Amino acid sequence: MSESVVADFVGRFYTDEVESDKPVNGRVLLSQKRLVLARDGGKTTIPLSTIFDVTAGFVPNELEAFFHDTVTVAYERNGQKRVAVVEGKGDSVDRFTQILFRVLLNGTTVTMKHPARIGGRVTDSTAQQAKLALKNCAVQFQGRSDSFVIDLATVSNIERTTQHIGGSQRAVLEISHIVDDSALLSVVAVPSSRKTNIFGRFVRLEYGDVQEAVQELTHTEEELETLVALYSTDGSANLGSLLDAEPAQITMVLNSLREDGLVRDGEGKTKLTPKGRVAVTMHLERINA
Description:
8-stranded antiparallel β-sheet, single chain, 7-stranded antiparallel β-sheet, 6 helices
C-alpha cells in the first residue's frame, strides 16, 4: 500500500475470497483510499468508494458461530454485493470502526436544516450547507459561519424520509436529539444514497445500544402512561389527573423511572432523558404496529 495507513492491526476476518468456510488470521490495513485484508497466500482489497454499509456487531448468520466483537463491511465488486467481517482483540475493532467511519465521511458536504423543529414547533430555519467532521460518539457540522455538534448519546430517534430541501426533493435523515433539555429535530441530506446509509449507521451507533438497554427493561402500564404523558407535554403533564393516583403513588412511579434512567428533574419539571424518549418511541411503535 503506497498511501499513508491510518489503521493497522492483526485480527481475524472472512471474505468470499478466503479459501475456507471459517475466518482466517491476518492483517487489517486502512488508508484514505482502500481497506486491505492481508492473509497468508493472498489479500482482499476493498476500495472505499465501493463500501455502502458498515455495521458494528452484526455478523451474517452463517458466520455467527465464529465471531464475537466484529464489524461487517458491505461493498460492491463487479456489480455484486459482498461482505467482509473483521474481528480484533481488545478495543481494536471499536477504534477501527470509528476510524473507518471518519475516513468514509469526514469532509462530506451535506445540506441541512438545524433545528427544523424545537419540541413541537416547526422553525423557519433555511437549508444550509455544512461539512461533516466525525468525533468519538459525536458528529460536528461545520458551516461557513458557525458549527454545531450532535452528541450521539442524546439521539432519541433517527428516520430516513424524503423532503424538499436545498431546491429539490431528496432523501434525508431526520435526527431527533436533546440539547440543553430541549428536544430538537435536525434534517440532514447527504449527497448520495451510499453515504446516507453509512452516515445513518454512524448516528445509530449509540442509539442502537440505548435501544438494547431499553428492551431489557420492563414497565407497568402506569409507568408507560407517565412516559407518554411527559413526552407529549414536555414535562408539564398533570400526572395526578392522568393516572388518577395519589401523590405517593406518583412519586413511586417517577422514582422507578429515574432509577431506570428514563426521566430527570430540571427547571421545575420532570423531563424525559434521551433514553426515556427512545423508550416512548419504541412503545408507540409497538402500539401502532
